[in-house]
Amino acid sequence: MQIVKIDKNSDISNLVDTLLQRTPNYYDDYIKQVQNIINDVKERKDEALIDFTQRFDQVKLSKNEIKVTEEEIKEAYDKVDSDLLDIVRKAKVKIETYHMKQKQYSWFDSEEKGILLGQKISAVSWAGVYVPGGKAVYPSSVLMNVIPAVVAGVENIVMTTPPGKDGKVNPLTLVVANECGLKDIYKVGGAQAIAALAYGTETIPKVDKIVGPGNIYVALAKKAVYGHVNIDSIAGPSEILILADETANPRYIAADLLSQAEHDELASSILVTDSEEVANKVVEEINALKNELSRKEILEKSLANYGYILLVDSIDEGVKVSNEIAPEHLEIITKEPFMVMTKIKNAGAIFLGEYSPEPLGDYMAGPNHVLPTNGTAKFFSPLGVDDFIKKSSIISYSREALYELHEDIIKFADSEQLTAHAKSIKVRFEDDK
Amino acid sequence: MQIVKIDKNSDISNLVDTLLQRTPNYYDDYIKQVQNIINDVKERKDEALIDFTQRFDQVKLSKNEIKVTEEEIKEAYDKVDSDLLDIVRKAKVKIETYHMKQKQYSWFDSEEKGILLGQKISAVSWAGVYVPGGKAVYPSSVLMNVIPAVVAGVENIVMTTPPGKDGKVNPLTLVVANECGLKDIYKVGGAQAIAALAYGTETIPKVDKIVGPGNIYVALAKKAVYGHVNIDSIAGPSEILILADETANPRYIAADLLSQAEHDELASSILVTDSEEVANKVVEEINALKNELSRKEILEKSLANYGYILLVDSIDEGVKVSNEIAPEHLEIITKEPFMVMTKIKNAGAIFLGEYSPEPLGDYMAGPNHVLPTNGTAKFFSPLGVDDFIKKSSIISYSREALYELHEDIIKFADSEQLTAHAKSIKVRFEDDK
């Protein structure tokens, strides 16, 4: 963890570039392989899924084993800690409550001469949630990806996840999915799962929107099918930026930086402060705390590569740095955090005050933990109900209202050399003359 | 124009597939070329832009000619029909008025024990609008792409468009851009323009969001840079579907179908009706009207390839067909169009009643004419203010409120083997014990 002084004239673009390079924007070697998998699934459907699952997951499924059975879901409940299940249910309620507030409503506006304009909101009909396999299971991630779709009113939500070597899906994943009301869960992972969701197979239905995190194959497959279906954003490595003044508790800051760093070696933890004392104490606290934690090797690597303490002249300068980095998670631990927040332009989630640590948001607070990473908070938003709806414009004009505009539209269309467009207006008033 | 009978048991998936095939989802031959252009612009910046503009547009620009000058904008006003300019200004007001109603607002909700959750809305800082060159100039397209960004509050909006052979930008494009308040317009087109907007050059700034239509190079370049910046949806060939019963005027329907067909040979015009009489009369009217129009060859090709009259048993059956096709433009010309509209799930824009022809929406009504094409209305929305904003979650907890959840969060984090996440909560209450 290095302390770097930043002043008004410092160019932080090198730092920003270093962070951005954690996600190369494309990977030539993988793209071809991913495209081949997609093409094969498009063509051979379930047969291709069976072959890829054998090759990549070392599990030989028959056609009727692709879908998880009701029996398997029931069995999964026996394997899950009931205290944890209670907490999952509590979290579910909090996440639902927050997402209900994100709902948008259809609207219209009208004018007396007979003009009605508006916007109709409707949910997508089909959503597919991808859940990664591997050793780590993240029940919180299942909740965060499924609940916004449920709240949006998506009629059909399906899930795909790679099976373990025993041919089973992790029981906790099944239980959490079932708690959210999902019945259609498929034992397929990787690019082949994304292809199946995008194009459909005999067993897996084609969906309109695919969400969920995954490895590089999954990310590239999502990008490849984007446009044919919709996807959430493409997830990159995670980061936290903590903006702190001299009132902040260095031990809390240290713990929060470490909580980000434990995710993986590409995770980035950044403290931006105007207090040299806080900066120095945070370094001490990190050294003390990290010995008490289990993922020491990952912690040390990510802090060494992408951990920074930036010493700025003022919190206002710190805000500028933060807006430039556009962190996924931003903690503001200062005297007046809400006043600082007014100046924040780019951040996935903003945690205010010393009792709002980032892990609160990961699990229980309610807002989504699927957030724009690696600078994409400049243009992407947290996953939410918006991701599962789409809008239709509504236009209704009376004869009188159209008449008032008809000459303008005809002239406009003629200027674009679209005479049939002009004609569509003319025929409606040709009997007038 | 063929009349096809459809009943409850008909499978329209062949028709849907035919329409979808108008846009192959990827084009192997072009992708490499586009990626090479992007890489070259990333590396050589303005120099690469100058080379590509010479190669593709046959115009040799010097570095300081890439940006359109104030002088050129002034001169453009002399070349534009002042009546047309008045209409453009009228359209601009109507488009602004509609888009103002799309604005979303930041919100929060709070609980007395010290919990504040919310969502902060902010505009992207930089937007780039691409305007195609070529013979046809579409001032309406400039309005529709720029105004939502202006209404969203985007601080910096820039435009790129290829120069004509004389090295100038079309005067109407310049005038309309200037009317919208744009000052930074660059004479660059194609994939190189998209690369410049995505990565920045000495002259063209890097933006957060790129919008605007373009040819296959532009579309593939937008897809390639997606994730590094945000883009609008990827535009495909245009279509209209008209849902009409026996009350509809066949001449109006014919004119509206033709107005869609004149766009290009890939455009699709579809009538869905439960009235055989209307179906037959529409065929007659099309034959009569098309001789009065200028783009006869395009009209005939697009009607022959992608024009359909589908005869259904009832309007309800017609709604099902329409939802499956998910048309860009949907006209409902029936007895009770608003009641039919309640059943529509997928459509870019819905035009109700016989005095709401599609060209009204193209120019003057107010809603955006950049709409999801070719079935993507199942998951994409019209271009709008939403495209230029992003959201940040807001989370603030008091000590008391966090205390209430702290044991749950610790257990949840431990279940995911994230001990540093648990520690971040523990350190805040370690003095209690």
Automatic annotation (TrEMBL), chains A, B:
<dbReference type="InterPro" id="IPR016161">
    <property type="entry name" value="Ald_DH/histidinol_DH"/>
</dbReference>
<dbReference type="GO" id="GO:0008270">
    <property type="term" value="F:zinc ion binding"/>
</dbReference>
<keyword id="KW-0560">Oxidoreductase</keyword>
<feature type="binding site">
    <location>
        <position position="215"/>
    </location>
    <ligand>
        <name>NAD(+)</name>
    </ligand>
</feature>
<keyword id="KW-0368">Histidine biosynthesis</keyword>
<keyword id="KW-0862">Zinc</keyword>
<protein>
    <recommendedName>
        <fullName>Histidinol dehydrogenase</fullName>
        <ecNumber>1.1.1.23</ecNumber>
    </recommendedName>
</protein>
<feature type="binding site">
    <location>
        <position position="260"/>
    </location>
    <ligand>
        <name>substrate</name>
    </ligand>
</feature>
<feature type="binding site">
    <location>
        <position position="329"/>
    </location>
    <ligand>
        <name>substrate</name>
    </ligand>
</feature>
<dbReference type="GO" id="GO:0051287">
    <property type="term" value="F:NAD binding"/>
</dbReference>
<dbReference type="GO" id="GO:0004399">
    <property type="term" value="F:histidinol dehydrogenase activity"/>
</dbReference>
<dbReference type="GO" id="GO:0000105">
    <property type="term" value="P:L-histidine biosynthetic process"/>
</dbReference>
<feature type="active site" description="Proton acceptor">
    <location>
        <position position="329"/>
    </location>
</feature>
<feature type="binding site">
    <location>
        <position position="416"/>
    </location>
    <ligand>
        <name>substrate</name>
    </ligand>
</feature>
<feature type="binding site">
    <location>
        <position position="263"/>
    </location>
    <ligand>
        <name>substrate</name>
    </ligand>
</feature>
<feature type="binding site">
    <location>
        <position position="263"/>
    </location>
    <ligand>
        <name>Zn(2+)</name>
    </ligand>
</feature>
<comment type="function">
    <text>Catalyzes the sequential NAD-dependent oxidations of L-histidinol to L-histidinaldehyde and then to L-histidine.</text>
</comment>
<feature type="active site" description="Proton acceptor">
    <location>
        <position position="328"/>
    </location>
</feature>
<comment type="pathway">
    <text>Amino-acid biosynthesis; L-histidine biosynthesis; L-histidine from 5-phospho-alpha-D-ribose 1-diphosphate: step 9/9.</text>
</comment>
<feature type="binding site">
    <location>
        <position position="421"/>
    </location>
    <ligand>
        <name>Zn(2+)</name>
    </ligand>
</feature>
<dbReference type="InterPro" id="IPR022695">
    <property type="entry name" value="Histidinol_DH_monofunct"/>
</dbReference>
<dbReference type="Pfam" id="PF00815">
    <property type="entry name" value="Histidinol_dh"/>
</dbReference>
<keyword id="KW-0028">Amino-acid biosynthesis</keyword>
<feature type="binding site">
    <location>
        <position position="192"/>
    </location>
    <ligand>
        <name>NAD(+)</name>
    </ligand>
</feature>
<feature type="binding site">
    <location>
        <position position="238"/>
    </location>
    <ligand>
        <name>substrate</name>
    </ligand>
</feature>
<keyword id="KW-0520">NAD</keyword>
<dbReference type="InterPro" id="IPR012131">
    <property type="entry name" value="Hstdl_DH"/>
</dbReference>
<feature type="binding site">
    <location>
        <position position="130"/>
    </location>
    <ligand>
        <name>NAD(+)</name>
    </ligand>
</feature>
<feature type="binding site">
    <location>
        <position position="362"/>
    </location>
    <ligand>
        <name>substrate</name>
    </ligand>
</feature>
<keyword id="KW-0175">Coiled coil</keyword>
<feature type="coiled-coil region">
    <location>
        <begin position="31"/>
        <end position="79"/>
    </location>
</feature>
<feature type="binding site">
    <location>
        <position position="260"/>
    </location>
    <ligand>
        <name>Zn(2+)</name>
    </ligand>
</feature>
<keyword id="KW-0479">Metal-binding</keyword>
<feature type="binding site">
    <location>
        <position position="362"/>
    </location>
    <ligand>
        <name>Zn(2+)</name>
    </ligand>
</feature>
<feature type="coiled-coil region">
    <location>
        <begin position="272"/>
        <end position="299"/>
    </location>
</feature>
<dbReference type="InterPro" id="IPR001692">
    <property type="entry name" value="Histidinol_DH_CS"/>
</dbReference>
<dbReference type="GO" id="GO:0005829">
    <property type="term" value="C:cytosol"/>
</dbReference>
<feature type="binding site">
    <location>
        <position position="421"/>
    </location>
    <ligand>
        <name>substrate</name>
    </ligand>
</feature>
<comment type="similarity">
    <text>Belongs to the histidinol dehydrogenase family.</text>
</comment>
